[in-house]
């Protein structure tokens, strides 16, 4: 049975997920999940591999539709990909995918302002100027603009992905493992940068992370998932008083506890 800090989602929250369920064939990837985040606040989502974290994120951004339950963004029902409010929200959400999803055939600046170029909201000249400005914000040199993703290190690619995610000044920023595979120094730098963006711009941030220290110290809220369910959700300041065995095991990284390693083949990796 799941255990959460509150039994219901906050109906006034900027992001409100209620009993969200997403299935792939006979497999349930997200199972009756409740989630709420206030406007301008940050949330870390933690959990073992195949917990349903990335699927939940893709439901929020609109890649997957909900099979059951609802997703409300600032009061708008966006539960399904064809929801009337989805097109408007497409421009209000920035997303960093787990493996960055940069286009190898485009330059860095074209990657960062890809949406604006495709929609024609910026000329190519203005798009390059905007991208160059964002490169400075994420700590990359102006000269990086004319490189391609293959010319960049993993950490640099990650920062380009973040620059693209914030290029439209989104109201909601979704980050799928922004520090995956990075060294501790660079991980801390990127998380500080994300915190700065949230504070300066009032952006609501939801981030999947495998770094438990970062989850505890850099985010105002935390949600713990396992097997598609939420086992704890609340303020990070309440973690030490949670007395939740799933949460404790995850934070401690212990092999002993209710979370066991899943064996067998995952289909298409959709249950990450």
UniProtKB/TrEMBL annotation:
<dbReference type="Pfam" id="PF00005">
    <property type="entry name" value="ABC_tran"/>
</dbReference>
<dbReference type="InterPro" id="IPR017871">
    <property type="entry name" value="ABC_transporter-like_CS"/>
</dbReference>
<keyword id="KW-0547">Nucleotide-binding</keyword>
<feature type="region of interest" description="Disordered">
    <location>
        <begin position="250"/>
        <end position="272"/>
    </location>
</feature>
<protein>
    <submittedName>
        <fullName>Organic solvent ABC transporter</fullName>
    </submittedName>
</protein>
<keyword id="KW-0813">Transport</keyword>
<dbReference type="GO" id="GO:0005524">
    <property type="term" value="F:ATP binding"/>
</dbReference>
<dbReference type="InterPro" id="IPR003593">
    <property type="entry name" value="AAA+_ATPase"/>
</dbReference>
<dbReference type="InterPro" id="IPR027417">
    <property type="entry name" value="P-loop_NTPase"/>
</dbReference>
<dbReference type="GO" id="GO:0016887">
    <property type="term" value="F:ATP hydrolysis activity"/>
</dbReference>
<dbReference type="InterPro" id="IPR003439">
    <property type="entry name" value="ABC_transporter-like_ATP-bd"/>
</dbReference>
<keyword id="KW-0067">ATP-binding</keyword>
<feature type="domain" description="ABC transporter">
    <location>
        <begin position="15"/>
        <end position="252"/>
    </location>
</feature>
């Amino acid at each position: 049975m799941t255990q959460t800090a509150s039994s219901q989602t906050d109906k006034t929250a900027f992001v409100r997920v209620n009993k969200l369920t997403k299935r792939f064939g006979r497999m349930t990837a997200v199972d009756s999940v409740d989630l709420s985040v206030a406007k301008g606040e940050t949330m870390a989502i933690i959990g073992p591999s195949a917990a349903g974290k990335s699927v939940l994120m893709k439901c929020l951004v609109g890649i997957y539709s909900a099979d059951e339950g609802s997703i409300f963004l600032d009061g708008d029902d966006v539960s399904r990909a064809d929801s009337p409010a989805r097109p408007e929200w497409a421009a209000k959400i920035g997303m960093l995918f787990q493996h960055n999803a940069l286009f190898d055939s485009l330059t860095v600046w074209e990657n960062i302002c890809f949406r604006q170029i495709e929609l024609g909201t910026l000329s190519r000249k203005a798009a390059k100027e905007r991208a160059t400005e964002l490169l400075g914000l994420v700590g990359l040199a102006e000269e990086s603009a004319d490189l391609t993703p293959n010319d960049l290190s993993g950490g640099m690619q990650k920062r380009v992905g973040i620059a693209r995610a914030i290029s439209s000044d989104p109201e909601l920023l979704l980050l799928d493992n922004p520090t995956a595979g990075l060294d501790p120094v660079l991980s801390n730098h990127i998380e500080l940068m994300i915190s700065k963006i949230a504070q300066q711009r009032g952006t609501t941030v939801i981030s999947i992370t495998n770094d438990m220290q970062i989850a505890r110290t850099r985010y105002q809220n935390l949600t713990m998932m396992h097997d598609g369910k939420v086992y704890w959700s609340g303020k990070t300041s309440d973690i030490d008083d949670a007395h939740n065995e799933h949460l404790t095991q995850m934070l401690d990284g212990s092999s002993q506890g209710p979370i066991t390693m899943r064996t067998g083949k995952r289909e298409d990796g959709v249950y990450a």
